[in-house]
């Protein structure tokens, strides 16, 4: 497993995270792991949603790009 060292965190932020971790009965280290996993999954989910929207918007398009490509090549 990889390790990450985070420097220059605001003391107030660390204190709030410690309180949150304690309320969840987990360590601060586990709190950071949970946050990192959640963020990585959220990014992936947002990408998948954007991809799905793009596919839906272009589904059934009758655009034939052949003529446009030929025009560009003939220039």
Automatic annotation (TrEMBL):
Residues 48-58 have a biased composition (Basic and acidic residues). Residues 48-75 are annotated as: Disordered. InterPro entries: FitA-like_RHH, Ribbon_hlx_hlx. Residues 2-34 form the Antitoxin FitA-like ribbon-helix-helix domain. It holds the Pfam family FitA-like_RHH. It comes from the Bacteria. GO terms for biological process: regulation of DNA-templated transcription. Transmembrane segments: none annotated. This is Antitoxin FitA-like ribbon-helix-helix domain-containing protein.
């Amino acid at each position: 497993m990889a390790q990450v060292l985070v420097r220059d965190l605001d003391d107030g932020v660390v204190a709030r995270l410690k309180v949150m971790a304690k309320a969840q009965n987990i360590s601060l280290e586990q709190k950071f792991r949970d946050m990192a996993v959640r963020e990585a999954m959220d990014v992936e989910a947002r990408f998948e949603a954007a991809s799905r929207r793009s596919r839906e918007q272009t589904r059934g398009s009758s655009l034939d790009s052949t003529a446009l490509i030929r025009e560009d090549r003939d220039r």
